[in-house]
């Protein structure tokens, strides 16, 4: 499991979305969510090594039942090989079986690789987040 966290932290090169310790806590808690069927997780293995990981969970948004994509990561060596798309497809099939037909996520505005992948998968802009750098 530690490999997954290191890979995830490295993939967030444009921002530090969470610390390594926060990541450890999230992964430790994932087992309980999986047992209660409150999360779906996929690991993509190549030659006995995990090279991709996806984690979604049910979440209401504006009163609507959806799934939230919490984590998706593919090791740099295997990007652009459809691994992320394959994991998304598997997750979407399971989500539909659970009677939900929407998934949403957040992507850093400067993460062009992730933005491009989400647009290719049919995601649409829904919410914009703004920041003012200096408050006077």
What does this entry look like structurally?
The chain is of the alpha+beta class. It has 4 helices and 4 strands. The protein has helices at residues 2-11, 20-35, 83-97, 112-120, and strands at residues 40-46, 49-61, 64-74, 103-104. The chain has a 4-stranded mixed β-sheet. The longest helix has 16 residues, at 20-35. The protein starts with a helix and ends in a 16-residue tail after the last helix.
Write the layout of secondary structure elements.
Blueprint: H1 2-11, H2 20-35, E1 40-46, E2 49-61, E3 64-74, H3 83-97, E4 103-104, H4 112-120
Parallel strand pairs: 3-4
Antiparallel strand pairs: 1-2, 2-3
Helix pairs in contact: 1-2
Keywords:
alpha+beta; globular; disordered N terminus; 4 helices; 136 residues
């Amino acid at each position: 499991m530690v490999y997954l966290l290191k890979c995830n932290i490295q993939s967030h090169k444009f921002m530090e979305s969470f610390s390594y310790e926060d990541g450890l806590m999230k992964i430790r808690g994932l087992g309980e969510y999986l047992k209660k069927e409150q999360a779906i997780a996929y690991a993509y293995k190549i030659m006995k090594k995990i090279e991709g990981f996806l984690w979604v969970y049910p979440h209401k948004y504006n009163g609507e039942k959806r799934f939230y994509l919490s984590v998706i990561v593919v090791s740099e060596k295997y990007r652009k090989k459809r691994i992320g798309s394959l994991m998304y497809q598997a997750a979407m099939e399971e989500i539909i079986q659970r009677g939900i037909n929407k998934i949403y996520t957040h992507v850093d505005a400067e993460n062009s690789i992730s933005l491009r992948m989400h647009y290719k998968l049919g995601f649409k802009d829904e919410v914009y987040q703004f920041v003012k750098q200096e408050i006077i």
